[in-house]
Amino acid sequence: MDVLGAWRAFVNVSERGSFTEGAAATRVPQSVASRRIAALEKHLGERLFDRSSRGAILTQFGRDLLPSAKRLVRLADDMEHEAEQAKLSPLRLAVPDICTVRDLARLDVEARRKGIYLHFHAALPAERAGLVRSREVRAALVAVPPGDATWSVRLGLAGAADLPVKTVYAETLRAGRTARSSRRSRIWIQPEDDVPHIRDRMFRIRDAIGLQPAQVGVSTTLTTAAAEVLGSTDLLLCSVGQAEELGLHWRPLGEIQLVRGFEVSAAVGDDAERIRTRLRHPIARCLGAHDRDSEHDQDDTHHQVGAHDQDGGTPSRSST
């Protein structure tokens, strides 16, 4: 028995004194309203209406229950209203600060179409994870190793000058005998990539190929790193999308394949699943993790990642 529906029909019929008008107010056929009230009477063991009279006349038992029934229906209506309002409450989502305003706006538009209202909080990787733990945000796109990621973004090296090669090998940044007095080019790691599965692997490559410690460093901000690259022969570790936005020329990194991984972390599991399933593709676009790029990256991996990525060795290349 639909208990709430039965009490709603009871209240509407009693207020209007008619099964026909009460059923219309309940938005059900008269036969349905009659069946619900009959089922309620059977459940309670007493009659609510005197059916021998003209119209719908409450029995004494029905009059006694009417105030409580009205409170129940009113409470149910209030709960439905609050549920609708809760759907409109913004879901505070911590996002990488590398996401552009345009991409976040497009993500917001598509989220609204799917009944999700977002409020963005841009933050660095370590901060995003902390915001979820402290419940300052309901969810966050956190940095994770690519094997644990829902979204993956391939990284490479980008410079101000167009590079005349398809792949850049970091070992070519070593100073040769003829360049000892010149400034050595550096590779800049931006704050978004200052995470162990990217930073530490880049440092290991630096040490394995004999670069100076200062030739691979972490910048305090992306703006600072971009300025260093735009004004010199330095290179920025970044995604294709970032390189295009900054007007840089991007190439894959030869010694190793580095990938940003993102996953949803939320204080409530339902929030994480809702974001992951309903907004998977809009978030991919916002992060620069396009499906076609992922498929292309998988094909390229077989050609561009050497055996060192499996056994720790570093292949030697003589050209940039």
What distinguishing features does this structure have?
D-Maltodextrin-Binding Protein, domain 2, alpha/beta, 2 domains, Arc Repressor Mutant, subunit A, two-stranded antiparallel sheet, 9-stranded mixed β-sheet, 13 helices
Low-pLDDT ranges: 177-181, 291-316
Query: How many beta-strand runs?
Result: 11
CATH architecture of the largest domain: 3-Layer(aba) Sandwich
Structural class: alpha/beta
In CATH, what is the class of the largest domain?
Alpha Beta
Q: How is the biggest beta sheet arranged?
A: 9 strands, mixed
Form type: rod-shaped
Overall pLDDT, averaged? Answer: 86
Tell me the helix content.
40-55%
State the separation between the terminal residues, measured CA to CA.
76 Å
Number of helices: 13
**CATH topology of the largest domain, which one?**
D-Maltodextrin-Binding Protein, domain 2
Number of domains: 2
Q: Please trace the helix and strand order, writing H or E for each element.
A: HHHEEHEHEHEEEHEHEHEEHHHH
Strand content: 15-25%
Radius of gyration: 32 Å
Protein name: DNA-binding transcriptional LysR family regulator
InterPro entries: LysR_HTH_N, WH-like_DNA-bd_sf, WH_DNA-bd_sf
Organism: Streptosporangium album
Pfam families: HTH_1
